[in-house]
Amino acid sequence: MKRNEYHVVPDGQGWKVEQGGKQVGRYDTKQVAVEAGRKAAHADEPSQLVVHTADGRIETEYTYKDDPYPPAG
Fold it and tell me: How many C-alpha atoms does 64 have within 13 Å on its Cβ side?
């Protein structure tokens, strides 16, 4: 089963949570955006939350239900 992927990314002076290229919500702080992203990802398992830094690089990832690591083979 494919996981639903959520991203916390910078958005001007704030942060937003995206899923499938669509904005789920916009927040003033990264901390609040991560909390909202975790709630959204938990509600849509199996899922993954990818948190980005202010310059767009991946900072951390959270996987909810059925983590494929280590991969088969």
Answer: 17
Name the residue type at position 54: A
In one-letter notation, the amino acid at residue 32 is V
pLDDT tops 80 at residue 40: yes
pLDDT digits (tens, 9 = 90+) for 42-55: 999 999 999 999 99
Sign of CA dihedral 20, 21, 25, 27: positive
Tally Cβ neighbours within 10 Å of residue 20. 9
**56 contact partners, CB below 8 Å, separation of at least 6:** 9, 10
pTM, two decimals, is 0.87
Q: Measured between alpha carbons, how far is 64 from 57 in angstroms, rounded to an integer?
A: 21
Q: Where are the alpha helices (DSSP H) in the chain?
A: 30-42
